[in-house]
């Protein structure tokens, strides 16, 4: 009945005809497993979650751009998605399969550019760029403060987060999982205070991005950690600069609200008054927002008088009371401050700034050595270049040979106090020197403690430091051997009693080496009450055979201040660099420069270092020749004059020139002049001092002075003629004696070869009497031999 009906559509060449031989043997009702194990299933589920997070985040970014969601909704959702993304990748198996975001996107065909950028930054857009509608909250009573009306509580919270982050770095917390959450809290709390782009705010974002791209357990390197600390400190300063108005005490956690112990202690940290920096140009790297002093004392006493009964433990209550009491004592002046640790930065010869931490116990009248004084700070800042700039010595008869170049320099600090000078010296000199820090019995334990505090730095620089008691008033028995004496003695602010000059000089005489390279470096403040002691010290050092070869003055600022942290009067300090040759002899007064050893052609020419007097010879043809012939070089009023060789016959008191040749110590800016040998002279006997004879560039007069006075004038080369008796300057023996208006004979150098006509005309002295003279070296050693010979003959 039903014939086979034709198909209603034409067959196609691609129609499928089942082939029973190729049919699958599985049932369509059977479950197909995508994973062969539970671990594999968990992996794929995690990857699927990451996939969905990326897609969702991309959609959220689009919704935020179109203003479909509010800022608070966006921030909350974005933060949650970012946390879920990071949590998913916290599994090592998932992270290995994921590889990285770009690989994952390519593998699964994802684009999602907005989500990609958000995941790279790791922060919601409202955090990356400060929100203008961020809700605010107070941790204390309402108070409008800085930064565009932000509450003091928000400023306080942001400050706490900055300090917490920087403290974490100081504690060497450098892993991503430790730093990223803390830095995120910093930027979020900052955004609640201000939506302004303050200086270095971008640094916080950059570091958040850097940390976000690190693996959870990955750590910053040492250089990265230092750079991060510097950048965040700069951002903190920028944040504080943006908040000009100080906090009010009511912005702090109030006792009646029963805040936690942590909140109280953080608030008390903000009220800490630290000593002023010794460096007037230094800004504190981390400085909290200022708190207006009004009401602070009452706030502190309210904490001390409170039972703090809501705090959990007695230890926490004690910690709060101690901190409040410390803040109260700080407002009673520097002398009432509690024990503290202070950080000092010391320059090094290789350009690195070395950091020392020193503990200072609470200060009392009988242990002033427990405080770091500005004298120590100023001297520590000079140590990196001190020995290079200090002149070398000229040997005297009793001087022992110079130490070998590979010998370790032995240094001693007298009255070391907290040890800033000695520890700085040790860190700078490293294995090239050892130093022994000494003080009185009550001070040495803290001195040793400070050496231990800086053991990491001292170990890194291969420094050798020892500490012990040394009482200047007690002579050591037995006396130290030459091997036990020191090449260098350091002392900062050592005089605060009438007895100290004698004690100090006696101690120097006992412990200082008689070697050619021996040095004493002393820094003393110019306190009016102790100026007589300073003068006595100089005189006694001169009697010991030491000569001042370099000294100067600079302004220093001590850390005494008012109760509210205001600076007191500035204190002017003087640096005195005292250098010696051989102690036992008067002729041990010495001066020289490091360039002497560098001058190869004169290195071993001891004849040029022989001390001599300068006498004058003339042709004897004129009356003027007769008046000046046989006269001797003398010094007075910064000029060189001619006078009687016998001091008792001189009408005007003057100092006899005692000279020798030595290479002139050029400054860095004048080294290219290479002016060769200078002419050194003693310029005072008590205390013994040395200077340079030079020719004034304008007047051509012979004058004398220190390097600062002479360097811009004609200082050399001085030399002698072949017979080694006639003195020359610039290879010329042409000197003149010119009679001054007061009848005295001054000495001039005929540099222009015109018999002084030009310079005398400029000075209106053409009519003054003058005579050409020859300068003769009279060796002191020969005079002594002649005197001895005469005594023997008689």
UniProtKB/TrEMBL annotation:
Keywords: Endosome, Protein transport, Transport
Xref: PANTHER family: VACUOLAR PROTEIN SORTING 28, ISOFORM 2 VPS28, VACUOLAR PROTEIN SORTING-ASSOCIATED PROTEIN 28 HOMOLOG
CDD domains: AdoMet_MTases
GO biological process entries: protein transport to vacuole involved in ubiquitin-dependent protein catabolic process via the multivesicular body sorting pathway
Alphabetical list of Pfam families matching this protein: Methyltransf_16, VPS28
Domain of life: Eukaryota
Annotated ranges, domain VPS28 N-terminal: 21-129
Entry similarity comment: Belongs to the VPS28 family.
Residue span(s) of domain VPS28 C-terminal: 150-244
Keyword match Calcium: no
GO cellular component labels: ESCRT I complex; late endosome membrane
Compartment(s) of residence: Late endosome membrane
Protein name as it appears in the record: VPS28 protein-domain-containing protein
């Amino acid at each position: 009945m039903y014939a086979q009906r034709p198909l209603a559509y034409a067959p196609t060449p691609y129609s499928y005809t089942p082939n029973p031989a190729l049919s699958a043997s599985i049932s369509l009702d059977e479950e197909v497993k995508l994973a062969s194990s539970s671990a594999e299933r968990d992996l794929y589920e995690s990857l699927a979650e990451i996939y969905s997070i990326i897609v969702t985040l991309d959609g959220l970014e689009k919704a935020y751009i179109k203003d479909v969601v509010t800022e608070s909704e966006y921030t909350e959702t974005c933060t949650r998605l970012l946390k879920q993304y990071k949590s998913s990748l916290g599994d090592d198996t998932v992270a290995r399969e994921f590889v990285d975001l770009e690989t994952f996107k390519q593998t699964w065909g994802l684009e999602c550019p907005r989500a990609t950028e958000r995941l790279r930054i790791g922060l919601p857009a409202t955090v990356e760029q400060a929100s203008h509608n961020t809700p605010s909250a107070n941790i204390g009573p309402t108070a409008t403060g800085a930064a565009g009306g932000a509450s003091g509580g928000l400023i306080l919270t942001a400050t706490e987060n900055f300090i917490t982050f920087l403290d974490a770095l100081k504690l060497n917390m450098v892993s991503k999982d430790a730093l990223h959450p803390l830095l995120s809290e910093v930027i979020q709390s900052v955004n609640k205070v201000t939506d302004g782009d303050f200086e270095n705010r971008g640094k916080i974002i950059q570091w958040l991005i850097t940390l976000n791209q690190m693996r959870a357990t990955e750590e910053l390197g040492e250089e990265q950690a230092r750079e991060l600390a510097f950048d965040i400190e700069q951002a903190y300063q920028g944040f504080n600069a943006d908040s000009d108005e100080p906090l009010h005490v009511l912005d702090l956690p109030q006792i009646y609200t029963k805040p936690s112990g942590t909140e109280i202690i953080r608030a008390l940290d903000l009220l800490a008054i630290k000593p002023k920096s010794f460096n007037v140009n230094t800004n504190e790297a981390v400085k909290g927002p200022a708190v207006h002093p009004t009401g602070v004392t009452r706030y502190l006493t309210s904490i001390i008088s409170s039972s703090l009964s809501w705090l959990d433990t007695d230890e926490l209550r004690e910690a709060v009371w101690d901190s409040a009491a410390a803040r109260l004592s700080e407002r009673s002046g520097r002398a009432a401050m509690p024990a503290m640790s202070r950080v000092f930065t010391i320059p090094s010869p290789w350009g690195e700034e070395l950091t020392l931490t020193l503990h200072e116990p609470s200060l009392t009248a009988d242990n002033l050595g427990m405080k770091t004084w500005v004298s120590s700070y100023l001297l520590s800042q000079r140590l990196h270049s001190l020995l290079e700039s200090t002149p070398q010595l000229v040997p005297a008869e009793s001087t022992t040979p110079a130490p070998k170049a590979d010998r370790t320099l032995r240094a001693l600090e007298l009255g070391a106090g907290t040890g800033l000078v000695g520890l700085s010296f040790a860190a700078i000199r490293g294995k090239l020197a050892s130093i022994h820090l000494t003080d009185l019995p009550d001070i040495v334990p803290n001195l040793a403690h400070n050496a231990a505090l800086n053991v990491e730095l001292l170990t890194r620089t291969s420094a050798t430091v020892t500490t012990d008691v040394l009482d200047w008033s007690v002579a050591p028995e037995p006396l130290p051997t030459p091997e036990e004496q020191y090449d260098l003695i350091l002392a900062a602010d050592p005089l605060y009693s009438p007895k100290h000059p004698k004690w100090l000089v006696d101690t120097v005489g006992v412990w200082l080496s008689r070697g050619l390279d021996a040095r004493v470096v002393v820094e003393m403040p110019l306190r009016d009450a102790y100026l007589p002691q300073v003068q006595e010290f100089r005189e006694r050092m001169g009697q010991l055979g030491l000569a001042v070869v370099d000294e100067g003055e600079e302004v220093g600022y001590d850390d005494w201040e008012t109760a509210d942290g205001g600076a007191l009067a500035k204190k002017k300090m003087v640096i005195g660099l005292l250098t010696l040759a051989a102690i036992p002899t008067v002729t041990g007064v010495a001066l020289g420069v490091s360039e002497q050893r560098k001058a190869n052609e004169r290195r071993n020419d001891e004849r040029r270092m022989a001390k001599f007097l300068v006498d004058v010879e003339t042709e004897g043809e004129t009356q003027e020749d007769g008046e000046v012939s046989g006269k001797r070089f003398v010094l007075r009023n910064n000029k060189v004059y001619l006078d009687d060789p016998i001091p008792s016959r001189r009408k005007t008191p003057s100092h006899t020139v005692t000279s020798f040749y030595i290479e002139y110590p050029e400054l860095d800016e004048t080294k290219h002049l290479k002016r060769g040998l200078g002419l050194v002279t003693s310029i005072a006997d008590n205390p013994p001092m040395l200077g340079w004879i030079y020719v004034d560039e304008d007047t051509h007069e012979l004058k004398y002075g220190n390097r600062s006075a002479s360097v811009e004038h004609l200082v050399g080369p001085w030399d002698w003629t072949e017979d080694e008796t006639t003195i020359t300057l610039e290879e010329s023996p042409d000197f003149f004696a010119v009679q001054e208006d007061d009848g005295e004979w001054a000495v001039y150098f005929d540099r222009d070869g015109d018999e002084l006509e030009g310079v005398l005309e400029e000075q209106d002295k053409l009519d003054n009497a003058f005579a050409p003279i020859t300068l003769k070296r009279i060796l002191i050693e020969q005079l002594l031999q002649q005197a001895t010979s005469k005594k023997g003959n008689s």
